Amino acid sequence: MKAKNLLFVFLTAVFALCGTRASAVIYIAPDGTGDGSSWENAAPIDSLKSKVDAEAWIKEGTYNMKAGFYLGQGARLYGGFKGGETAFDQRDIKIRPVFTSNCTMFSIGGNSTSRTVYFDNLEFANCDLLSAGNRMLLEVYGSLQINNCIFRDNAATETVGIYSDANSSITISNCLFTRNKVSSKFGILRSHGSVTFCNTTIVDNVGEGDFDWNRVGGIYVLAGNMRFYNTIMWGNTPGNIRIDAGANVEFYNTAISETENDNGRNTWGYDYVAGEAAKDGSTIVLDASCIKLALDNNTDTEATEETTAAKAPKFVDPENGDYHLTAESPLIAAGDDPAGLLTDNTYDLDGNLCLDEDFNIDLGAYQYVEESGITTVGADNTELKCYPNPVNNILYIDADGAYQADVYSIAGTLVYSSNILASGQLDLQSLVPGFYQIVVKTQNGTLTTSIIKK
Description:
The protein has two domains: 6-325, Pectate Lyase C-like; 374-453, Sandwich (Immunoglobulin-like), CATH 2.60.40. The strands form seven sheets. It has a ten-stranded parallel sheet with strand order 1-2-5-8-11-15-19-23-26-28, with no helix packed on it. The protein is built from two helices and 39 strands. The protein is globular. The longest helix has 15 residues, at 6-20. By secondary structure, the protein is mainly β.
C-alpha cells in the first residue's frame, strides 16, 4: 500500500526530531568516570539517575548494569556514537551500545505524559534476570518512545522486556524483539496502559515451561489500549498475543503468524485474533490490510474449513536470526502510515529510509532495499557501490570511510555536493533526469563512477 502522505513526513522528520531534543548533553562511556561534560570526561551510565531533560550521547560498547535506577522525565538516551563526535548528525545509526544486566534496568515514571523519555539506537541483549528471580528490563509508569532498538536473547521470570503500567504511554518504532525467553506468563510486554507499535518485528520469543492458560511468548494485553501498524509477529511460542477482558486492541497492516501449539486458547495466533478475540469484554479491530503468515518461512498454506490461507514471510535466514525481507516477501510495500508515526523516526534498523522512492512502506523493522547498482574498485582495492541505478531520488553509497559526494553533469559542471550521512544516503531529488558522474571522497582516497537520474 502506498503512503502518499509520507512526503510531508520525510521532509519534516529531521526538523521534528531536532526541534524536540534537549540542549544539554551528557557524554556516556562504558568505562566513564568523569562528569560527562565531554568525551574525554565521559560519565558512567548511572550518572543519569533521576536527571530530568538530560540528553545522553552513549558511546558504543557493553554496559553491564549492576543495579537499575529511575530515569527522570524528558531524558533522551541516544546510541550511534563511537566517541569524539561534536555534532548529533555525525552519529552512525547502524551501531548501538549494548545494555546487559540481571536486574530491572530503568524505571520510567512521572505524572506528565508531555515529558517523554526517549530510547534511540540502543540494544538490550543477553540479560539473565532469571538467575536473580527478576521480572522485567523496563518498568514504565510515564511516557516512553523507543526507536530503532533491539531486544534479543534476554531471559526473565514474568516479563522479559517491558512492563507498561495503567498510566503509561509507550510508542515503539522500528524495533526488533527476538529470541527472548520468559519462564512464566507475560512474554516481551505486559501492558495495562497505552502502547503503539510501528514497523516492529516480534519473532521467535518463547514462553518456557508448561503451556498453562496464561503463558505467551509474545505480548500480553491485560487492559488499556494497544495499536499495531506495519508490525510482524511470527513464530512466538506458545502464542503471539493474548488479549484479556477490557483491553482495546487494533491491528493495521500487521502480519501475524499461525502458532505451533494447537490447544485452543493457547494458540493466540492470527486465527485467535480473527475468530475468538472479541470475548470477555475485549474490543478488537483486525483491519482487512492484515496478513496471516505461515510458520514455514518459504511455503504458503491453503485455506481449510477452519482457517484462512497463510502466506510465507520469506525472511532471509530466520534460523540464524536474519529477519530482513527477501525480494519475494509478501511483506514488501504492504504498509502505510495513516497515524503519522514515522514523523519522528524515518529510518529502519539498518539506517535505510522506512519508505522507498514510491513512498511504499514494508512491514517490520527492516525496509527491503534492492541492492542493484554498479560497483567500482579503486586503485587501493577500495570498493564503491551505488544503488539503485538508475535512481529516482535516494541514492545509497556503500564505501568504507566515505564522507563526501560531488555530482557532475556530463559537461563537467559541479551540480551537487553533499556530506554523506552515516546511513549512506544521498538525496538527489533536486537533479533533473540525465547522466551524471559522481565522485566519492573517502578516508582512503577518491572513487568515481556514473549514475543515471530518472
